[in-house]
Amino acid sequence: MKQGVTRIATAIVGIPLILSSIWFGGWVFYGFISLVALGGVWEMSTMIRKTGWHSSGIWSVILGALLLLRFIVPYWDALLLLGFMVFLLSTIRLGPGPTIERMAGSVLTVVYPVWLFSFFIDIRWEAGLVLGASGAFTLTLMLFCLIWVTDTGAYYTGKSIGKHKFAPSISPNKTWEGTIGGLVAAILAAVAFKLFLLAFLTWTDVFALALLGGFWGQLGDLLESAVKRSADVKDSGSLLPGHGGVMDRFDSLIFTAPMYYLYLVHISGLIGG
After folding, report:
1. Strand, coil or helix: what is 42?
2. Which of 161, 139, 142, 122 is closest to 37 using CA atoms?
3. pLDDT tens digits, residue range 75-112?
4. What gap in Å lies between CA 253 and CA 33, rounded to an integer?
5. Structural domain spans, the chain
6. Pairwise CA distance, residues 163 & 140, whole Å
7. pLDDT in tens, 177-221
8. Is 25 left (phi over 0), alpha (psi -120 to 50) or beta?
């Protein structure tokens, strides 16, 4: 009971925060995504250390911040290169030890959360240039909603009729029935967006974006489950009371965002280009 109340309270605070940041865009959205991404870096660093690999939380957060500066700082590539070289040097220890593991763990700590999170900023920014504030808000909101309804559809379908395990060695509770239920929910949500909010989407766009959110997003959740199983933890962190950590809530979203961006820019041509 207490856990349920905590989850609801976190959602009551978190959802309006997400929606308002998407609406305002610009510095507000950039700041929100940056903070969430760096929280994900810290969580990844903690989980990687629990596997026995090395990962420097502080250095990883610093490099993650440098990666996010690409949106606002001139000569960003030179600054990032210098930071990356210092970051690699930080993995060296005098004496014997698996330096290559420390390097690999440290790089993964940064690249996985920050690079993927940064595509949210790309989507909101480039959509704003083409569609204006309202269109950019709705198109970005669609990404979040596709993942949210997929998670909900997969959970309740799997709980009600799920029998055939999807990936029992990684996530024992996931079923093929739940996966299909999540995909159907995403298709319905995408159709609703076209009919009521984004009339310029073609039906090809609708089903392509639904597939990305409804299936590809679930693979992102599966990937994060594999990471947590390797670290022998139930949640990626405790930043979001009742929900676990940042990576627990955003795993499907950050896995889908790059594909969502690539589709909108390079396949449909709706934004950017």
Report:
1. helix
2. 122
3. 777 777 787 787 777 777 644 456 777 777 888 888 88
4. 12
5. 2-267
6. 34
7. 999 999 999 999 999 999 999 999 999 999 999 999 999 999 999
8. left
